[in-house]
Design goal:
Distance between the termini: 21 Å
Number of helices: 4
Helix content: under 10%
Radius of gyration: 23 Å
Structural class: mainly beta
Oligomer: single chain
């Protein structure tokens, strides 16, 4: 077993040609570094002043075409793992020598290492993987950003309807701060994690007066923290029994609006509702991470609108699951969970999540869609404002509930966007969109450029339907759909599989030659909606192709399994 946290980061920086002080120095700001060095804040290591510019400038020079042969090698253990960008985004390139692939970019540093100073991820040559995600070592490379050297990461948690303190100080359980850590005498509940807020007494007058945000979970008795506005950590050096931990917000809708905060937090702080939670991420040079917890079903629809973003100043909405994020996963395990996984539904609106802003990443949520009249759906991407916006939906489960009436019933819909808008739909399980609505669709493309890769669509009238725009479909599995695909798909569409006798799409350019029709899929337990591929499946296993930017499956397992084989078709990479 090999510890794989700060060591990985240092190796990565050195592989990128950066010079680190000896001994290696971690930092919160550049003030913590020796003369001539600056703090590379994404990973909290000091590098020479000239290196920060070279990292960013060198990354801007990289241009990778996901449909071509050029690739960025991004591994840390002896395999030649490609990480190209089909959408021609900028990429950060590191190259190591070991046997398991880890693609590092802005999202992975956030999602995998969380607080790379503190979090150690373990890998072995015979890496155990399972659908529980307990041993997940990497996250996906959804975006290929130039890693900014000075953007501030703001974490906020959502606990639907939960105003109660998650943990409370007592004489036998005091809080103290040590080198960016909040350390407790006793274990804190495992459901406490990134984005949660610590309210505490900073001046020993028995009055709670200060807020801090949790940015990583180091152990059962310690968490990584920063001030609520994301500023560099200042350790007050106090020990206090006057402290409480809360979720920041009680719904995703409130977290997106920045108000109201959790009413259990009677103390408010300058920065929580103004500077820290402003929607202009570019102006304040921030990245916003909204961590969603499984306290209850979130019945308030989420409207993602009026955010000012950029590829480096993005909005990420996700269910935390990694050990460096939370003590117990808040995410599904590749099948629908009635408890223990964050879930949002559309009972308060036609659509559960509406995305009207750019550079948004939705990852690992459960979305339940009821027909309650009108156009009812899970996630609708619409009305994006910039010339080249990118929205990603990955590792989600979107479930249709076939009760009630409605004119439309869909899992993911893309409509009324800019023609150049890029929407990436990767590794999702979408099922149950069939019944009495006029249009029952799993993925519905009407405008923009859609990249649908490694999705599993089951029991939909239309699995994927293109009514406008351009949709590229690769490695998708369609089972028990009345019409698997319909419309004209983009050049490059191929490697899709269906149990129907035909894939009735038109494909621009070269006709697909690796599709599979009349397939027999073997699922683990389809009657219980467990659509993981069985070990003896012959309809999807090892029949797909590698795709740049998609390095894991819906469970967090690396693709491919076993290493060296072809990819599986669908959201699951069979064990």
């Amino acid at each position: 077993m090999k510890e794989f946290g700060s060591l990985l980061t240092l190796v990565a920086l050195q592989a990128a040609g950066c010079t680190a002080p000896s001994p290696a120095a971690t930092c919160a700001t550049s003030a913590d570094c020796p003369v001539g060095y600056s703090c590379y804040e994404v990973v909290h290591f000091c590098v020479q002043d000239t290196d920060a510019a070279r990292i960013e400038g060198g990354a801007r020079d990289q241009h990778f075409d996901g449909r071509g042969d050029d690739a960025a090698v991004a591994d840390v253990r002896q395999s030649d793992a490609r990480h190209d960008d089909h959408a021609a985004q900028d990429a950060f390139r590191i190259d190591g020598r070991s046997s398991d692939r880890v693609v590092l970019d802005a999202h992975q540093i956030d999602a995998v290492l969380a607080d790379v100073q503190r979090i150690d991820v373990e890998l072995t040559d015979a890496r155990p993987v399972d659908h529980s995600r307990a041993d997940a070592a990497v996250a996906d490379a959804i975006y290929d950003h130039v890693i900014p050297t000075n953007a501030t990461d703001i974490y906020r948690s959502v606990g639907p309807g939960n105003t109660t303190a998650l943990a409370v100080g007592t004489p036998s359980n005091t809080l103290r701060f040590e080198s960016g850590l909040a350390v407790f005498d006793l274990e804190v509940p495992p459901a406490i994690g990134v984005g949660d807020v610590i309210a505490y007494d900073s001046d020993s007058d028995a009055t709670i007066d200060t807020l801090a945000m949790i940015v990583g979970r180091a152990s059962s008795t310690s968490v990584s923290v920063r001030p609520i506005d994301g500023a560099a950590t200042t350790d007050p050096g106090v020990a206090t029994l006057d402290w409480r931990i809360y979720r920041a917000y009680t719904s995703l809708a409130n977290a997106l609006a920045g108000r109201p905060i959790n009413s259990g937090l009677t103390l408010t702080s300058a920065g929580f509702q103004t500077y820290g939670d402003d929607q202009d991420l570019v102006r304040y040079n921030q990245r916003r991470h909204i961590a969603c917890y499984a306290d209850a079903v979130d019945t308030s629809w989420a409207n993602i609108q009026y955010w000012t973003t950029s590829p480096s100043n993005y909005l990420r909405i996700y269910a935390p699951y990694l050990p460096g994020e939370v003590g117990v996963s808040q995410r599904h395990n590749g099948t629908w969970r009635t408890s223990g996984a964050y879930t949002i539904d559309n009972t308060s609106n036609d659509v559960a999540i509406v995305v009207r802003s750019d550079n948004v990443w939705i990852d690992g949520l459960q979305v339940s869609v009821y027909r309650n009249g009108g156009s009812n759906g899970g996630i609708s991407v619409t009305g994006n404002s910039t010339n080249d916006p990118v929205v990603t939906v990955s590792e989600c489960i979107i479930r249709g509930n076939n009760t009630g009436l409605g004119s439309e019933h869909f899992g993911i819909e893309i409509w009324d966007t800019q023609a150049t808008a890029v929407v990436k739909v990767h590794n999702n399980l979408i099922y149950g969109f069939t019944g009495s609505a006029v249009d029952e669709v799993g993925i519905w493309a009407q405008t923009g450029q859609i990249e649908g890769v490694n999705n599993t669509l089951v029991g939909c009238f239309f699995g994927a339907r293109v009514a406008g725009g351009a949709m590229l479909a690769v490695n998708n599995l369609f089972s028990s759909c009345t019409i698997a695909v319909a419309g004209t798909f983009a050049d490059g569409t191929d490697y899709n599989a269906t149990d129907s006798l035909t894939l009735s799409y038109n494909v621009q350019g070269v006709s697909p030659t690796h599709d599979h029709v009349g397939s027999v899929f073997t699922f683990l337990y389809a009657a219980n909606k467990d659509f993981h591929l069985g070990a003896n499946d012959q309809g999807a296993r090892e029949l797909g192709r590698e795709w740049p930017g998609v390095v894991i499956d819906i469970d967090g397992n690396l693709r491919p399994l076993p290493t060296g084989t072809a990819w599986d078709i669908g959201a699951d990479e069979a064990l």
